[in-house]
Design goal:
alpha/beta; about 45% helix; about 270 residues; 8 helices; single chain; about 15% strand; binds nicotinamide-adenine-dinucleotide; globular
């Protein structure tokens, strides 16, 4: 892994498993110091930190529920005390609580919105405040700070049976673009990644089942289910100064899933 994030300080939420864990490890390998946020899987977070440290990097595991403002602030306080500040936020934590529309409880609607949308708002708000307070050091980076929100192809593709999730991700798109527009003049770069189907715990039931895997593959023109590292490599680039002119963009990393694959044969 090229050391494209040498000396950078990053916070990755939901980093004890799946995409977040892969991003935290890739950031460490690229030279960043990483706050590895976890919600309940302390062991998973400790393993990610161990991997970062054994590759010669710095990592700190921090328990926080990022749907709560005071917990988000704790992540930034740790970045400050352990690493002297923060340059990159990857707001990745997210859940699914699926149900047919009329069976979806208000509680499950609210929980998904609280984490997948409000949690991203809270962490991004804290990041902007901290970036401003730290001030710009052009020797570190042309950007004052970088924020990557974790969206989904479902910011664009409607998803029956998952209206809470799709609504949250549609909100993430609007949040990301509006925030990017608001703070770009201060040299804060805000972007998002929209993964397609990536093999993690969130969709384990589908990809572990042969029939489920077949159905998933029908939706992926590139012909393979994604790996967390596919997203991690994109995140390293988006967090690095190699993407310095990329502002307010959603990078789809989806093997072509957003290309209306059912029209492959001409519709
Ligand atoms: P995952 O279940 O492995 O990761 C989700 C992480 O969020 C877990 O580590 C979990 O502990 C953490 N989390 C849950 N509640 C939290 C809370 N209140 N505070 C802090 N952390 C909390 O699944 P994943 O696929 O790696 O998901 C990561 C992100 O990627 C999510 O935002 C998800 O919507 C998005 N995504 C995933 C896919 C996919 O196919 N896997 C596709 C599109 C988008």
């Amino acid at each position: 892994m090229p050391r494209d994030l040498e000396g950078a300080r990053a916070i990755v939420t939901g980093a004890s498993s799946g995409i977040g864990a892969a991003i935290a490890q890739a950031f460490g390998a690229a030279g960043a110091s990483v706050v590895v946020n976890y919600h309940s899987d302390e062991e998973g977070a400790a393993k990610v930190v161990e991997d970062i440290r054994s590759a010669g990097g710095q990592g700190e595991a921090v328990k926080a529920d990022v749907s709560k403002a005071e917990d988000c602030a704790q992540l930034f306080a740790t970045a400050e005390t352990k690493f002297g500040g923060v340059d990159i936020l990857v707001s990745n934590a997210g859940i699914q609580k699926d149900a047919a529309f009329t069976d979806l409880s208000l509680g499950d609607w609210q929980q998904v919105i609280d984490l997948n949308l409000t949690g991203q708002f809270l962490c991004a708000q804290e990041a902007v405040r901290r970036f401003r307070a730290q001030g710009h050091d052009a020797k570190r980076s042309p950007a004052l700070g970088k924020i990557i929100l974790m969206s989904s192809v479902h910011q664009a593709i409607p998803w029956a049976g998952h209206v809470n999730y799709a609504s949250a991700k549609g909100g993430v798109k609007a949040l990301m673009e509006s925030l990017a527009q608001e703070v770009a003049g201060e040299k804060i770069r805000v972007n998002a990644i929209a993964p397609g189907a990536i093999k993690t715990d969130i969709n384990r039931a589908e990809w572990e089942d042969e029939e489920g895997r077949k159905k998933m593959l029908e939706l992926i023109p590139y012909g393979r289910i994604g790996e967390p590292d596919d997203i991690a490599r994109a995140a390293v680039w988006l967090a690095s100064d190699a993407s310095d002119y990329v502002v307010g963009t959603t990078l789809f990393v989806d093997g072509g899933m957003a290309l209306y694959p059912s029209f492959r044969e001409g519709g």
